[in-house]
Amino acid sequence: MNKFNLTPASFLVYGISVGTSTLIPFNFLDHAQDQGIATIAGGLWSVVLFYIYTSLLRYGNSEGDFLDLIKNTFSKNLSYIFLIFYSLFIWLAISKDLAIVWKTISTVILTKHSPTFVAFLFVLHIFLICTQGGIKSILQLSVFYASVCFVINIIILIMSMNNIEYTNFLPFFYKGVHPFIREFATISGNSSSEIFLLLFIPEVCKEMRTDIKRFLFPLIFIVATNLIKYTVSLGLLGEYLKYVPTAPGGAAAGVLTIGTAQIRIEPLVILAWFITAIIKISVEYYILSNLAARMVKNSNMNTFLFPIGIIACCTSLIIFKNQIEVINFTRTYAIYGTLFQFLIPLFFLISLKFKRIPAIS
């Protein structure tokens, strides 16, 4: 970590970006072969967003977050309005991510043991935040979770190499550029652009103002992880993706043949692709509880942890009835994401430049 100037926040970027996006099946996209190019474009999009976010944060003080910046440079009322808007958007995001996690588990992978596994996931979020010190614990544990995720993905790729059909990756742009644009929008909304969550963590905002390199370096591993998912899913299944409409490709592949042995990779897929969901949902849970406390001007965020968790879970169960609904919603979510993750921060950045407020060098 010292050699590459990394901090726990660097691993948090990985956990948030990978998050639940690896659980979205490719067959819901227009043309799965274009997903690899869209993944690389999504990584470049993250660089653009980081430039916008860091440029924006340099106009604020060294202790505040995005909402504090709006409050100090514009008005308290405007800050409160966007506090409500972003609370609603993050509430929608955590409902979507919870649905992706437990709908995938309960309908495809762990049918017999899904209630226990889902309960464990939710209890773990509360444990991380309530008993282990909030965001500091999430930052520290993200180092472990992100490292395990990437290493296991490498193992999955190595195990799959002999079974991959390389002809499954061609042709590119078979249906034109439009499918690529839609796939890029899905990736940017559900993966690359989710780094907007960092704008609501003051400790991370402080680091983003001083050294952006420690946040850009993890993007290499984020793109690599998404490309591994692309390689394993499409390389193993190819056209058979359309017969597994609700399963992540790697999990649906099931059995790999290595020599004379047959090995099932679902346990590895669960470990690699669900572990980052713990990081992302924990961050969303922490931020949403913090925003709720700020909304009613209560300094004790712990008061809101349990009710916010219950509301998020109930909302997730009410809105999304099945796996197909939640996966299709990722496209709609990308539209909302464009507004909250990109257009609003860009609007405030341009406004600050026109106001000629000096930025922190």
UniProtKB/TrEMBL annotation:
Q: Which key words are in the record?
A: Germination, Membrane, Transmembrane, Transmembrane helix, Transport
| One cellular component (GO) term of this entry | membrane
| Residues spanning the membrane | 12-29, 35-56, 77-94, 114-131, 143-164, 184-204, 216-237, 268-288, 300-320, 332-352
Q: Topology with regard to the membrane?
A: Multi-pass membrane protein
Q: Which InterPro entries match?
A: Spore_GerAB (IPR004761)
From the Swiss-Prot or TrEMBL record, state where the protein is found. Membrane
Principal subcellular localization: membrane
One GO biological process this protein is involved in is:
spore germination
Q: Which family does it belong to?
A: Belongs to the amino acid-polyamine-organocation (APC) superfamily. Spore germination protein (SGP) (TC 2.A.3.9) family.
By what name is this protein known?
Germination protein
